[in-house]
Amino acid sequence: METFGQRLRAATDARGPLCVGIDPHAALLAKWGLTDDVAGLERFSFTVVEALADRVAVLKPQSAFFERFGSRGVAILESIIRQSREAGVLVLLDVKRGDIGSTMAAYAGAYLDPDSSLCADAITVSPYLGVGSLRPAFDAATAHGGGVFVLALTSNPEGPGIQHARTAGGRTVAQTVIDEISQLNRGAEGLGSFGLVVGATIGETGHDLSEVNGPLLAPGLGAQGGDPAGLKAIFGESLRNVLPSYSREVLAAGPDRVSLQAAADRAADACRAVIG
């Protein structure tokens, strides 16, 4: 069984280093001329999948925008996960779950067990109940060839107050998370399957990412203010492992499929020029 890290490296080598979010929020649905309901959600989501699933490395649906429509929205999420994976694109489900014990195990089963209709290739999680509390997700990912991306250094203004706080040992909270994920990837052949989320707009972080040996998701490029040229300052020698993520910059080009594809191609070219 190939690991997620191996599959991700193969995908980015073949298709370029680009992740595109599927974020059907109300303003974007309106921009596309769609209604803010299940019908609009369905049309939006399937258009993005049809346009991009055969040309980008990763699609990243944001679960919250589907959950807000209840069971019918979740059914659409299940469908686009299935269709995307069948088309050969990796699916990173943006759920940012974080809990303990049997609850975390249930989340892991929902999103990383192939028997679940919501199973994705990888998920995002929050470590603020302790990185060890995420062990069920790490174990499920290992068992099924999945991946886990852990929040580390986010671009929201409230983030540094917690992430840059110092622990009793002198490290920041973020560096503690970084170091624990680095340990999980130790000994991995090629790229490890456990990654970090590091915002593309945060600039020089003062944190050491050099030992992670896993994928580094960089959201916030394009309309959110991030520029591929700034990735070097954030990631340094780990730039090769960066998975740059665009959402609005690409999605705003819809609903025309050709325009969506052109926007994704421009983003991929800009990232490839920096990352290689």
From TrEMBL:
The keyword NADP does not apply. Keywords: Decarboxylase, Lyase, Pyrimidine biosynthesis. Its EC number is 4.1.1.23. SMART domains: OMPdecase. GO terms for molecular function: orotidine-5'-phosphate decarboxylase activity. The active site is at 96 (proton donor). Pfam families: OMPdecase. CDD domains: OMP_decarboxylase_like (cd04725). Gene3D superfamilies: Aldolase class I (3.20.20.70). Pathway: Pyrimidine metabolism; UMP biosynthesis via de novo pathway; UMP from orotate: step 2/2. It catalyses: orotidine 5'-phosphate + H(+) = UMP + CO2. The keyword Chloroplast does not apply. GO terms for biological process: 'de novo' pyrimidine nucleobase biosynthetic process; 'de novo' UMP biosynthetic process. Residues 17-263 form the Orotidine 5'-phosphate decarboxylase domain. Belongs to the OMP decarboxylase family. Type 2 subfamily. This is Orotidine 5'-phosphate decarboxylase. It comes from Pseudosporangium ferrugineum. The gene is pyrF.
